[in-house]
Amino acid sequence: MQASRTVHVVDDDQAIRDAVGMMLRTAQYDVHLWPDGVSFLEGAGAFGPACALLDIRMPDLSGLDVHAALGKIGAPIATIILTGHGDVATAVHALRAGATNFLEKPVASSALIAAVDDALASLARPGKADMRSSRAHDRLAPLSPRELDVLRGLAAGKQNKSIALDLGISPRTVEVYRANIMEKLGARSLSEVLYVAFAAGVDDNAAAPRARGAD
């Protein structure tokens, strides 16, 4: 099955909507712009396979509300949550809810295209999730046991102070571990770290990969 090139951008901020739409059109996507979740959902039941970029904060329906509605009607649409207010808890909520990815605004063109490509590929190849999980485990292999402990805390939606208390270390040490994790994963944002974490199942102790090396 050939991957779709259709992308729906749902954001109440026209400037953001137009800017994201322009980046996607430049990359040869078939782009549709929507000012809110309500108007988008009115026709979503008839949409073919696509990716939807959903702003997390919109009037009437949030991006997560729209994501949930798409799931209820069985729309073949992979979702990416957009936010200008990124934090650990929000990212965890979005990814646990089944969003394909979570991007913080302003979004770099390269990160946007990579996320959209991955989302659309997941629709074209049902086995994509298993492949993504395998790659995620490989990426986490260099992490030390303590770095994995910190990563599990982040995947649980905890802040640095809470993770520090759980592990008996200082918040500053947690920050150092977070920086190490991002460097080893080649991640540019917390959302990228969490994306890999959930793909590998590190929030589930039974599914967590075994790290190499010492603390």
Automatic annotation (TrEMBL):
Domain of life, source organism: Bacteria
Molecular function in Gene Ontology: DNA binding
CDD domains attached to this UniProt entry: LuxR_C_like (cd06170)
PROSITE patterns cross-referenced by the UniProt entry: HTH_LUXR_1, HTH_LUXR_2, RESPONSE_REGULATORY
Modification type 4-aspartylphosphate: residues: 55
Residue ranges of every copy of the HTH luxR-type domain listed in the record: 136-201
Domain Response regulatory: residue ranges: 6-120
Cross-referenced SMART domains: HTH_LUXR, REC
GO annotation, biological process: phosphorelay signal transduction system; regulation of DNA-templated transcription
Keyword list, A-Z: DNA-binding, Phosphoprotein, Transcription, Transcription regulation
Protein name: LuxR family two component transcriptional regulator
Organism of provenance: Hephaestia caeni
